[in-house]
Design a protein that fits this description.
Keywords: Membrane, Transmembrane, Transmembrane helix. The protein is mainly α.
């Protein structure tokens, strides 16, 4: 009898330890994800009216696309002295500056893609409940992703067309400012509206998932 009681106590202790170890695994499946406070991510904020979220994203995208259009089709960025501007310069210092400027531009554009990815994951994992808010977020995501793709091609074209080190650095600065327009506008809107609800609990993507966005499976479903 004493041996049976000892076995039961040992089994209870083992089950308690296993449940205690499984608890962090369940809680670690979910993490807080903070959206970037820009004019596109504001579409997911409940403190922003729908008409304002749609108008802000459309106005910001129109302004950014307009600047990129004039930069891309400006003759000074395409021709010089009656000839096409080549991507490779005769001076090694200019080519080195172009590589450095291209790396900086790619880093800045990658941050914009990461912000768009957070907004898309928020929609794919059904963290936005209202149907109208979902459509508004998809609208903002489409504009943000399209703008980031346009900036990627325009920035590389501008940097490669630079004929000296100063031009390459100034064109990189112009691309940086174009991307940050939505952040500056959102900071201005934040002075009048509540922007403190852009944090969401979302499960991380599994490392061995074969699906594009992954499928988070809870421990209870996995055990079943």
């Amino acid at each position: 009898v004493a041996g049976a009681g000892h076995d039961r106590d040992h089994e209870f202790a083992g089950s308690h330890d296993s449940s205690h170890d499984a608890l962090p695994k369940m809680t670690m499946r979910y993490q807080r994800s903070m959206l970037e406070k820009d004019c596109y991510s504001l579409a997911a904020s409940e403190g922003i009216p729908l008409w304002m979220a749609i108008s802000l994203s459309a106005f910001t995208a129109a302004m950014q696309f307009s600047v990129l259009f004039f930069l891309a089709f400006d003759n000074s960025n395409v021709f010089a002295n009656g000839r096409w501007l080549g991507p490779i310069s005769e001076h090694g210092s200019v080519n080195t500056t172009k590589c450095l400027a291209a790396a900086i531009a790619l880093f800045k554009v990658s941050t914009e893609f990461r912000h768009a990815e957070k907004l898309c994951l928020l929609l794919v994992r059904h963290q936005v409940r209202a149907r109208s808010r979902q459509l508004c977020c998809w609208w903002s995501f489409t504009l943000q992703y399209s703008m980031a793709m346009t900036v990627l091609f325009v920035s590389l074209s501008l940097i490669l067309s630079g004929q000296n080190c100063v031009q390459c650095l100034l064109k990189t600065l112009s691309v940086w400012l174009v991307i940050d327009v939505d952040n500056l506008a959102a900071a201005f809107v934040g002075m009048w509206c509540r922007l403190d609800d852009l944090s969401y609990a979302m499960p991380p993507l599994p490392a061995d998932s074969s699906e594009p966005w992954g499928r988070a499976v809870s421990s209870g479903n996995a055990a079943a």
